[in-house]
Every structure is written in C-alpha cells, then in structure tokens.
Amino acid sequence: MGSNFEFVNPQFFWLFLILPVLVLWYLWKRRQQTASLKISSIRGFKTGKNWLARLKP
Question: 47, 53 in Cβ contact below 8 A?
C-alpha cells in the first residue's frame, strides 16, 4: 500500500525547517511596509465646471 521513498540527499530536508521562518519574516516585513503617495498639488483632481468635462473619463 505505502511506497518507500529514497532520496539522494536527505540532508536537504533540514532546509524545510527554514521555510516557516522565511514565511513569517516575509509576512512581518510586508506588514511593516506602508504605501505613500506624494502629490504636489490637487489641481489635476479637480473636475471641470461644465457637465461635458465631468462625463469624460
């Protein structure tokens, strides 16, 4: 029923212990990052005064 597996380099299984640490480190670093956007003026965000300028995407 069960198959016996034989690996060429079983020492590399120790590297699997590093994987959870790397995942936790990645999640911790990603949580620390904050996105910022600097805008010099809001002139480009103002809409036009007529209805045609408001309809244009």
Answer: yes
From 20, 44, 23, 21, select the one nearest 53 (Cα to Cα).
44
pLDDT of 48: 59
- Phi, psi (5° rounding) for residue 52? -70, -40
DSSP 40: S
7-49: per-residue pLDDT in tens? 788 888 888 889 999 999 999 998 888 777 777 777 766 665 6
Spatial neighbors of 27 by CB under 8 A, at least 6 apart, are none
Burial class (CB in 10 A: 0-12, 13-18, 19+), 21: exposed
Q: What's the chain's length in residues?
A: 57
